[in-house]
Amino acid sequence: MKKTVNVLWTGGLDSTCRIAELSKLDVIIQPYYILDPTRGSIKEELKAIKTITNIIRNNSETKCDLMDVSIINMEIIQDDNEITKAWEFFNHKYKLGSQYDWLARFAKQNNLVLEIGIEGSERSKARNTITEECELILDKAEGLSEYKIVENKSSREATLLFENLRFPSTVWNMTKLEEIEEMKNLRMGNIIMKTWFCHNPIFGLTCGHCNPCKDALNEGLAFRVSKIGYCLGTIRRYTFDPISKIKDMISTK
User: Fold this and answer.
1) What is the number of alpha carbons within 13 Å of residue 240 lying toward its C-beta?
2) What is the CATH number of the domain that holds 130?
3) Which distant-in-sequence residues (6+ apart) come within 8 Å of 252 by Cβ?
4) Which structural domain, as residue segments, surrounds residue 83?
5) Could you tell me which of 250, 183, 241 has the C-alpha nearest to residue 210?
6) Each residue of 8-67: pLDDT tens digit?
7) What would the pLDDT profile of 121-148 be if each residue is shown by its tens digit?
8) Same domain as 219, residue 158
9) Of 72, 67, 64, nearest in space to 109 by CA
10) What whole-number distance in Å separates Cα of residue 172 and Cα of residue 14?
């Protein structure tokens, strides 16, 4: 029987790199997308996932069975005060993203082991949290090569948040530029520009100002950020948030 690998797929480079890797294995890939109604990039992310899914399915070198993405509305994920308090503890200490609260609750409530793509970057708050607070072990079962936490050697808070999550070792140890090279080595370079990362798209273009866009600019991926979108984003920021203009003026003096 084929193994099913549950993967959080956002349409971004990290998770797409993992999907590309798994596509070369004889496994079933079940992607999950958590729909946050307040997120401005839902349309672009789901479009990226649909486009890349079709490319992978039509690739003659694909060995996996890539299932349709399961779209989960965040509003149906049940509360869990213990998990949320654990997240609040790490958020206060490391500014850990709120997604790790609802991801932990989602995985626990659905009895899922869920892969999360976290890149090898010092800028990653999640990676910093995990490396500082958890002991990891590399699980190479069935050729998947995933890190998982050692529960009896990690704090209770860390166990509550991360016990059902797995971190692919390849992505964990690569920068985004290295992920791009990996996808080219897999002969899947044609999906790189199909990925999506911007949180605040403008007319379908990257804004250049949100945190993922800033990360792209700082990590050698400026070619992914639309110049037109950046200009439009600047106009939007200064029109609706004049304080931004004042801060920018001060920072350049």
Assistant:
1) 6
2) 3.40.50
3) none
4) 4-177
5) 241
6) 999 999 999 999 999 999 999 999 999 998 889 999 999 999 999 999 999 999 999 999
7) 888 899 999 999 999 999 998 789 999 9
8) no
9) 72
10) 9
Instruction: Say what the pTM is.
Output: 0.88
Q: Go through 38-63 and write b for each residue having 16 or more CB atoms within 10 A of its CB, e for each that does not.
A: eeebbebbbebbeebbebbeebeebe
Q: Does an H or E element contain 97, and which? A: none
Q: Are residues 104 and 210 in the same domain?
A: no
Cβ density class 27-36: b for 16+ within 10 Å, e for less: bbbbbbbbee
> Hey, CA dihedral for 136, 98, 210, 250, is it positive or negative?
negative
Q: Are residues 53 and 168 in the same domain?
A: yes
Residue 190, C-beta contacts closer than 8 angstroms, at least 6 positions apart = 55
Q: How far apart are CA 94 and CA 183, in angstroms?
A: 31
Q: How many helices (H) and strands (E) does the chain have?
A: 11, 8
The phi, psi pair for 145, rounded to 5°, reads 55, 80
Question: Which residues are within 8 A (CB) of 120 and not within 5 positions of it... i.e. 6 or more apart?
Answer: 127, 171, 172, 173, 174, 175, 178
Count other Cβ atoms within 10 Å, centred on residue 247. Answer: 11
Nearest-angstrom CA–CA distance, 137 and 28? 24
**H/E segment holding residue 167:** strand 165-168
Q: Which two tokens stand for residue 42?
A: 């839902």
